[in-house]
Structure formats: structure tokens, C-alpha cells
């Protein structure tokens, strides 16, 4: 069972954002919040084993993991920490996206936190997918429809464990806090400030309208440089 609280944004806003791919949301962000042009999104390549899945939009559940060092807590405390972690993941604003930073430094990705078990458990807990700079495994047995963006794919989980959760993490250049709104697809992910989220669908439509005259002439058998110049001028006049 999961406890999904009513989110700070109407479900209709999240649904509208999910109609666009992440690059389009980035384009829309440049219009609505140009001051964020260099921040708030992944800047390093992540592996996406399921590129055909649609974009996901949800509230972040943040975790820091490590796998090179063995968990030093007593077994009883480890068990309690694991339950506490699942309670954190399975409660709060929904839908949720797990955002996990691997803090093993030069050994990042040494052990996979994610595989058949965790993908299915997190899906049952109300998560739509995971964004991590760590490694994942068990791709054929992965929970159906559960998206994944990862730093690498590997075979072993080594000593992997959740070191902390609920704090600020940084994954592939993107800084995320618990409950941040995140949009992701095969291209990467971006944090969407709650106060501008509802403005992005309209801005995304504007981006599409501006691109249309350029794409039409670029794809036309009658393409010419003069026609491209005219299309660029028409594009710039669309508001």
C-alpha cells in the first residue's frame, strides 16, 4: 500500500507536461524562465534501456547510495533503515520518481541498487521510474513500464545500500531536492519549479509553432536558402 497525498499541482498540469518530450520542456523553460537556461537539468549522458516509454512527470524521492563500502550498521538497524526508506518512497506527493545519487566517487556504478526486485518494489510503491548516476541490472526482468535513466549497466550489486534519503542529491549535473517536480524521458531529466509548471505547456506549443515554418521548408523538395530566410523571418514573428 502507498500513501499518495494530493500534490501541490493539479493532476491536469502533470498530464499536460507529460504530453511533451523533455527537450521540448527545456525549450519551453527557456521562454518561461530564461534565468534557468544553464541549470536544473542533466548535463551528462545517461543510459536509457527503455527509450520507447513515454515521458514521466513526478515528485522526487531523493536517495544517496554506495556499494564499495559495506554497510556498518548492525543487522537490526539495517532492517529498520530499509523499512524507513520504503516508507519514505511510498508516501507523500504522487506520482513519484526516484532520484538516486551514487556517492562512491571514482567507483560510481560499482554495484547496482536497481534491478528486478527494486524496480518492481518501487513501481508498487507509486514510482514511475528512476534517475540515477549509478548502475542498473536485470534489464529483461525489469518492472514493465518503469522508466530508467542510469549512469551504467552492470552485473553485481556489490555492497550496495541506501546511505541516506530525503536530502539534496546531484545526478548527472542535475541538483534535486525531495518533492521537486521532475520531467524525464530517454534524453534526460529536468527539474520544473512548481510556480511556473502550469505555464510550460503553452510555451511548449509556442515553440512548436515557431519551429513549424522552418521544418516545413527544410523538409520540402523545393528548399532554397531564400525560402529558409523567409521561414526564419516568419518564425521570429510568431508570439
TrEMBL record:
SUPFAM superfamilies, A to Z: RraA-like
Binding annotation for substrate: 137
Cofactors named for this entry: a divalent metal cation; Mg(2+)
Entry superkingdom: Bacteria
Entry keyword annotation includes Magnesium: yes
Stored Gene3D superfamilies: Ribonuclease E inhibitor RraA/RraA-like
Database matches in InterPro entries: RraA/RraA-like, RraA/RraA-like_sf
One GO MF term: metal ion binding
Positions annotated to bind Mg(2+): 138
Keywords: Magnesium, Metal-binding, Transferase
Protein's name according to its UniProt entry: Putative 4-hydroxy-4-methyl-2-oxoglutarate aldolase
Naturally occurring in which organism (per UniProt): Bradyrhizobium betae
Amino acid at each position: 500500500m502507498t500513501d499518495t497525498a494530493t500534490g501541490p499541482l493539479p493532476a491536469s498540469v502533470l498530464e499536460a507536461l507529460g504530453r511533451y518530450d523533455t527537450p521540448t520542456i527545456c525549450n519551453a523553460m527557456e521562454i518561461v524562465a530564461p534565468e534557468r537556461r544553464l541549470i536544473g537539468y542533466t548535463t551528462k549522458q545517461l543510459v536509457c534501456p527503455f527509450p520507447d516509454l513515454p515521458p514521466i512527470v513526478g515528485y522526487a524521492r531523493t536517495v544517496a547510495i554506495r556499494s564499495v563500502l559495506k554497510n556498518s550498521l548492525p543487522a537490526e538497524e539495517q532492517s529498520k533503515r530499509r523499512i524507513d526508506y520504503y516508507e519514505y518512497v511510498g508516501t507523500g506527493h504522487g506520482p513519484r520518481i526516484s532520484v538516486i545519487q551514487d556517492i562512491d566517487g571514482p567507483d560510481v556504478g560499482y554495484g547496482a541498487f536497481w534491478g528486478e526486485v527494486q524496480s518492481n518494489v518501487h513501481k508498487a510503491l507509486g514510482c514511475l521510474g528512476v534517475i540515477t548516476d549509478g548502475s542498473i541490472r536485470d534489464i529483461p526482468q525489469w518492472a514493465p513500464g518503469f522508466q530508467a535513466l542510469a549512469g551504467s549497466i552492470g552485473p553485481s550489486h556489490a555492497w550496495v545500500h541506501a546511505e541516506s534519503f530525503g536530502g539534496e542529491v546531484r545526478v548527472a549535473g542535475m541538483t534535486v531536492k525531495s518533492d521537486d517536480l521532475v520531467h524525464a524521458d530517454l534524453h534526460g531529466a529536468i527539474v520544473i519549479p512548481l510556480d511556473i509548471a502550469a505555464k510550460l505547456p503553452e510555451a511548449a506549443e509556442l515553440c512548436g509553432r515557431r519551429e513549424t515554418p522552418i521544418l516545413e521548408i527544410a523538409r520540402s523538395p523545393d528548399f532554397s536558402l531564400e525560402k529558409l530566410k523567409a521561414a526564419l523571418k516568419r518564425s521570429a514573428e510568431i508570439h
